Amino acid sequence: MGDALKIVLYIIWTLFAAAAAAACILSLRKTKAQERRIDGWPKVQVTVTGGREGWTSGVGNTNRNRRYWPTYQFTGPQGVLYLGESEVSLVERPVPGSVLEVAYNAENPEESFEVAHPSKLLLGCLAPFFGLFALASFWFIGVFPLG
């Protein structure tokens, strides 16, 4: 009975480690793809006009927190005014009139992204955490008394 339970625990551990690795890899690939896409786009300083309020999901036993996504405006190459919303959320309400750096698609200026890349920092912190957690749980399964 004890050996069968350890096998089940190792299978669960393997599935968790594979899912965490896949999530990190997919997130990194998505971030890299967006960076490559906006590398050639013109950069412009935009003016914050306000922000949209929302909540974090509260996933993983965390508290739901209020977040703000800045809205902004900028003038395109032909003098046309374009509006956008940042995909990067902030803890504090954005201050109207403040400045952000945005890259926009020259062929379609309505498509723009904030140049900040906070997801790289988050991924850089989460990957070692999941790695250490996976090693610690693998060790714990080995020493867990089941008999």
Describe this structure in words.
The chain is an alpha+beta fold. The protein has 2 helices and 5 strands, in the order H-E-E-E-E-E-H. The protein has a 5-stranded antiparallel sheet, with no helix packed on it. Strand 2 (66-75) and strand 3 form a beta hairpin. 9% of the residues are buried. The mean pLDDT is 83.
SSE arrangement:
Blueprint lengths: L1 H38 L3 E13 L10 E10 L5 E5 L13 E6 L7 E3 L3 H26 L4
Antiparallel strand pairs: 1-2, 1-4, 2-3, 4-5
Tally of contiguous helical segments: 2
If you average the pLDDT, what whole number results?
A: 83
Count of extended strands = 5
- Rg, Cα atoms, Å: 22 Å
Strand order of the largest sheet: 3-2-1-4-5
The largest β sheet comes out as:
5 strands, antiparallel
Order of helices and strands: HEEEEEH
Shape: elongated
Distance between the termini: 8 Å
Give start-end ranges of low-pLDDT stretches: none
Bin the strand percentage: 25-35%
Which structural class fits the helix and strand makeup? alpha+beta
Helix content: 40-55%
Concise summary:
This protein is α+β, with helices and mostly antiparallel strands and 147 residues long. The protein has helices at residues 2-39, 118-143, and strands spanning 43-55, 66-75, 81-85, 99-104, 112-114.
Label this structure with key terms.
single chain, 147 residues, alpha+beta, 44% helix
